[in-house]
Specification:
By secondary structure, the protein is of the alpha/beta class. 42% of the residues lie in helices and 10% in strands. It contains 15 helices and nine strands. Helix 9 links the parallel strand 5 and strand 6.
């Protein structure tokens, strides 16, 4: 569908689908693909969807719920979505007070497992707060676990956040996030490429992941199993040449196995703080993470101070061998010179009897 619209425009594409006849040039071009699609099956699918569509009702339902529809070329359209090429959405439904384009100019995507561990939820919330306080927008999927924690962290920091849904913007999924979505609409935006009233499916979750990866400068995976939607988002980020980070976790946790796989294969950068992620996706030379130093060991109170406080006479400190009174190394040049003179016979001992061999009594039998 995307290549058809890009080649002939939306009106001609609709006309071709309604007539169930694709342009011969488009058919020949698709036949040269590495994996040629079954255009006959796809044409029947597009025709069925077009016959069931009611654009006027969708616009009325969206306007009634407070949502708005944006298309490429509108002032609010995020131009970074154009990098998706033929996979770029034809339009987006937006519901919220924030401007989608300006919110995504300086943004980071946070993704992870729905069945997140306490470690993952805490880390996602910490990243949301840290990024929000630094002026960055958090983009996520609005699901349970890592997504919800990241959104709440950004809201707590007073920063905008973007929730990309796999259903209509008027459908609350998961239903327990009704309060969260209401807060996001007041401080950020909820977006979807699905018309109002559409419910989520497994395929729609995977399809929307490309939007999460494309809207931001980079993606950080907080927790992910070996097979998870978060790794699917990471794959989209890599295909778009976006920055990818992963948070390490316990080696005994299956929820961190996907992150460790990304790090082991050197597809992602190890991220341990919001500052690390800002350093990865920020402006070179400006958004630098602070240099981490080892904590200084606390100084022990000196023995002299302790003994002076007790009224006792301080004991002199014992000097280590090879150190002078000032605590520095002795000058061993003189010692080396004396050894050289001793070897040449120019240096004599002051007490030669100590070097003389023991006397033996030759009178004894």
């Amino acid at each position: 569908m995307g290549r058809l619209v890009a080649a002939y425009g939306a009106p001609q594409a609709v006309k071709a689908i309604r007539s169930r006849t694709l342009p011969p040039e488009f058919v020949a071009q698709e036949a040269q693909q590495e994996r040629p699609p079954d255009l006959t099956t796809r044409l029947h699918t597009w025709y069925a969807r077009l016959a069931a569509a009611n654009p006027a009702a969708d616009l009325a339902a969206g306007t009634g719920s407070g949502a708005r529809l944006i298309i490429p070329g509108d002032p609010e359209w995020p131009t970074q979505l154009d990098q998706l090429g033929p996979s770029r959405p034809l339009a987006l439904w937006v519901h919220g007070d924030a401007d989608l384009r300006f919110s995504c100019l300086k943004s980071v995507s946070i993704v992870g497992a729905r069945a997140a561990t306490p470690y993952g939820s805490h880390t996602a919330a910490e990243f949301g707060v840290g990024l929000g306080e630094s002026g960055w927008t958090v983009v996520s999927g609005g699901a349970f676990g890592v997504d919800g924690a990241a959104h709440r962290g950004a809201l707590a920091a007073g920063a905008p956040t973007v929730a990309v849904l796999a259903c209509g913007v008027d459908v609350c999924y998961p239903s327990n996030h009704e309060t969260l979505f209401a807060a996001i609409k007041e401080q950020g935006v909820v977006i979807s490429e699905c018309p109002p009233g559409v419910h989520p499916t497994r395929a729609r979750f995977l399809i929307r992941n490309r939007l999460i990866a494309a809207l931001s400068r980079g993606t950080v995976v907080v927790e992910a199993a070996i097979r998870s939607g978060a790794l699917n988002t990471a794959t989209h980020a890599l295909s778009l040449n976006r920055h990818l980070g992963a948070v390490p976790g316990p080696i005994t946790s299956s929820m961190s196995a996907g992150c460790h796989k990304l790090l082991r294969e050197r597809k992602a950068v190890c991220i341990t703080s919001p500052e690390d992620m800002i350093d990865l996706v920020g402006v070179m030379g400006e958004d630098l993470a602070p240099h981490v130093r080892a904590p200084r060991r606390p100084e022990r109170p000196s023995q002299r101070t302790h003994e002076e406080g007790s009224g006792r006479r301080p004991r002199p400190r014992r000097r280590r061998p090879g150190l002078d009174r000032s605590g520095g190394r002795r000058d061993f040049g003189r010692g080396t010179e004396r050894l050289g003179r001793l070897g040449s016979g120019r240096l004599h001992r002051t007490n030669p009897t100590r070097l003389a061999p023991p006397q033996t009594n030759h009178l004894l039998p």
